[in-house]
## 1
Amino acid sequence: MSNQTLNPAEQLYSEVEAHRKADYPVAPLFLNRWSPRSYTESQVTDEVLNTVLEAARWAPSSSNLQPWRFVVAKTEEQRQAFHAFIRPNNRLWVEKAPVLILLASHRVNANGDPNGAHAFDTGAAWGLLALQAKLLGLSTRAIGGFDKEEARLSLHVPDEFELHAVIALGYQGDAETLHESFRDRETPNGRRPLQESIIEGRWEASE
C-alpha cells in the first residue's frame, strides 16, 4: 500500500514503523510515542489536560514525596509569558502548541533536608505524562532550551524548586507547517541496540 492511500492515522503509524524496531517485544505505545515539533491549533480541553497530569501524579517517588510540580500555561496571556523565556530557535515551532507545562521539582523534603531523588522521581512523572498524552492522541515534546532564571523570575518559582523542562502539549500537525529548518527532522528517531546500554555484573575497564 502506498503512503498516498493511507489516512492520517495510518500514515503516522507507518512513519513510526519505518524508523523504530524493538529488539524485544514491547507494547506498541512505547514505539509510537515520539516527540514531534508540529502542532495544530486545536485546543486541549481541561478534562484532557487534567487526565494527562493525573497520570503523572501516579508516578513512583522516594518516600512518596511527589516532588514534581506542573506550571501550566493554557491561555494566550500565559503562553506569551512562557514564550518570553524560551530560546528563539524553539520559539519557531513551540508558539503553536496550545499548552505549555513547566516541569519543576522540590529539592527538599518536609524537614528541609535535601531530597536526592527529586529529579529522578520527576523524570518518572514526565514519562507517564508523555505516555498518557499519546494514549489520548496528543503529542508532547520536552524543551531544555529555555532561560531558567528568567522563567523563575517571571513565574515566581521559589528557590527550593529546580526547573527541568518546558513540555509542549497538543495535537500533532503537518510537518509542512514547520519552519523549513525543522521539516526534515520531523520523524521518529531510533535508539541504539539494547545490548549497548546493558552492563552485566560490573563495569569492566576498556582495553
## 2
Amino acid sequence: MSFNDFNTIQHIIHHRRSIFPASYVKREITRDTLMQLLDCANAAPTHKLTQPWRFIVFREEGLMRLADQLASLYKAHTPAEQFLQKKYENTREKVLQSGAVIAIVVSYSGAVPQWEELAATACAVQNLWLAASAANIGGYWSSPGAVKHMGGFLQIADNEECLGFFYMGYHEDPARKANRKAVAEKIRWED
C-alpha cells in the first residue's frame, strides 16, 4: 500500500458519518453501483470463512413495499395510546426518500459463536458504508422495533436474523469529521 492509499483510506474513515434520508437528493443508485459497494462489503473479515452477511436490496417499487411493511408493522405492534401518526408517516417517508435500502441479515452457521457472526456482519456493513461514503452516497444503519417482525416479509431462514436496514442516497452535504474523543483516552500501552 502506498502512502497515497493510506491518506485516502484515512480520509474516508475520518469523514464517514451518518447521512439521513432528509438529505438525500433524487438520483438513482444503479444496480451496478450497488453491486460494487456490496462487493466491498463481501471483502469483510470472517472467522472460518463463514461469511455470515446477507443483503436484501430494495430499490424502485421494492422501496414502496418496504415502506408499507415497516409502517404496517409499526401500527400493528404499537399500543394505541403510544401510536403516533407522525412516526407512522416518517417511517414510510424515510424509506421513500432513499435511493436504496438494504436489509442487513446475519446467517448463523453454528461453526463459530454467534457474536463472531454478528461482528463479521458489522464489518461487512462498515465496508459498505466506507465504500458508499467514498462514492458520495450517504447512509445510516437503523434497527427499528419492527425489525424483529420482518422474517416472513424478508423470507429469511430460521438460522437468520435481520439486524436492521442500511438507508442510502446521494447527497450534497459538506464533508465533516466525526465527533470522537481522543483515541489516546481509549488506549493502555503495555510496552
## 3
Amino acid sequence: MKKFQFSLEKVLSYKQQRQDALRSEHAEILAQVHAQEALVESLWKRYREYGAEYRERCERGLPMTEVLVYQSGLRAMEREIQGETKQLEQLRERAEAKRKEVVEAKQETAAIEKLKEKKVRDYKKALEKSEEAFIEEFVSTSRVRAAAN
C-alpha cells in the first residue's frame, strides 16, 4: 500500500502557523497591558505623593498662589491618570479580542488534527486488513501447492 498522505496537510500547517502568529500577537498585547498597568500605578503613586505634599504644606501655611499651583497640578495629574486608564482599558479589550481569536484558531486547528488522527487510524486499519489478506492468500496458495505435490 502507498504511504499515508493527509489531503489537508497544507491547511493544517497554515492553521498552525496562524495560531502561532496569533499567540505571539496576544503575548505582545499582554506585555503592553502590563507596561500600561505599571505606568498607571506609578502615576497614582506620584499623585498620592503630590497630594500628601500639598496637604502637609497647607497645614504649615501656604500662599494662595501656591495653593492654586498645587490644585492645578493635581487636576492635571487626574486628567493624565484618566487618559492612561482609558488607554489601559482599550489595551485590555484588544487583549481579550486577541485571546478569543487564539481560542478560535486553536479550535480550528484541533478539529483538523482530530480529522488527521482519524484518517491515520483508518489508514492503519486498511493496511492491517491488506496485510492479513496477503498473508491468507499466501497461506492458501502454499497449502494448494503442498496438496498438489
